[in-house]
Amino acid sequence: MKILVTGSAGFIASHTAERLQSMGHEVVGLDNFSDYYDVSLKQLNASTLNSKGIAIEKIDLRFTKQLQLLPTDFEYIFHFAAQPGISTTSQFEDYLENNVIGTKNLIDFAFKNQKLALFVNIGTSSIYGIHATFDETVPPTPVSHYGVTKLAAEQLVLESSRLGQFKACSLRLYSVYGPRERPEKLYTKLIANAFNDIPFPLYKGSETHLRSFTYVKDIVDGVLSVIGKEDLVNNEIINLGNEEENTTQQGIEIVEKILNKKIELQIVEARTGDQLRTKAVIDKARKLLGYNPKTSLIEGLKAQIEWYQENFIDQQHLEI
Asked: What residues does the NAD-dependent epimerase/dehydratase domain cover (predicted)?
């Protein structure tokens, strides 16, 4: 199949594009190479994909004229591109334009693809709010601009499936980590600071926050399990994550154990909109997709540390 992956120079999307290509699909990626975080990391991901025959077009979804440069014979669209996370440097307009306007423009582009079998929106557990411990039937109560705009994007996509314009589903992901994770996220930053003997800034009270930390391979398994199940998943919202919960403190201790090194912590003010607990309820994913995440936190963190060491310590490719 011919498949479009948005945000393909980013963390989870780059892994998804790579897996799709290994499955024999023709993959086209697009990314706007935003400077929300160090662009050199995206360029490293893009270089990895390019070496495997995956083209990445520099296209910004906020601008419809740029989307006109793409062909219109895609059979699947996996929509990862977004303004991510909680950041004091991002304004509401950044989330609105990238997550809502960008998604609407992609939907309009999707209408032109007559062979389109399924539009897969990548959502987030942030949609649920402070406590993301529910199944998909619970009304969402997001507490951040990110969560609010990702909910709006999700509903825009599902509007099209409800109206019968094309088949679509939305997958809500939980606390994904692993190789290529963004540099401001917990584990990449924790690992980088440990290697570089820099105190790690820990948000006040966050050491007790509970998370369904989910290894990226397990997430990609879930995301790609929708292929061939277009009728089954059409108009559905599905949680994807690990049922096992760990506190931030437990995660820190696991990294310390793997590195055999104590990490100095620097307590900083708590962030507004940070989730207190996420626990993936994946009964629906198990039933519809046969989803079964298997990677333990220690196994996943060993792989992430190896990736970091290979790319940022041994080879000195980049600095995070």
From this structure: 3-241
Half-sphere exposure of 118 (CA within 13 A, CB side): 22
Chain-centroid distance, C-alpha 313: 25
Most distant pair of Cα atoms in the chain: their distance: 56
pLDDT band at 317 (very low <50, low <70, confident <90, very high): very low
Count Cα atoms within 13 angstroms, Cβ side, for 162.
Answer: 9
Query: For residue 4, what is the enclosing H or E element?
Result: strand 2-6
**Residue 146 known to be catalytic:** yes
Amino acid at 101: I
The DSSP code sequence of 222-281 is HHHTTTT-HHHHTTEEEEES-S--EEHHHHHHHHHHHHT-PPPEEEEPPPTT--SEE---
H or E, element range at 29: strand 26-31
Q: Please state whether beta strands 236-240 and 76-79 pair in parallel, antiparallel, or not at all (unpaired).
A: unpaired
> How crowded is the C-beta side of 253, counted as CA atoms within 13 Å?
7
**Burial of 90 (C-beta count, 10 Å sphere; 0-12/13-18/19+):** middle
Does the pTM surpass 0.85? The reply is yes
pLDDT 10s digits, 216-265: 999 999 999 999 999 999 999 999 999 999 999 999 999 999 999 999 99
Q: Give the residue from 132, 144, 156, 180 showing the smallest Cα distance to 277.
A: 132
Burial 229-247 (b: 16+ CB within 10 A, else e): ebeebbebbbbbbbeebbb
CB neighbourhood size of 228 (10 A): 11
List of domains in the chain: 2-174+215-242+280-293 (3.40.50.720)
- Catalytic entry in 146, 174, 215, 291: 146
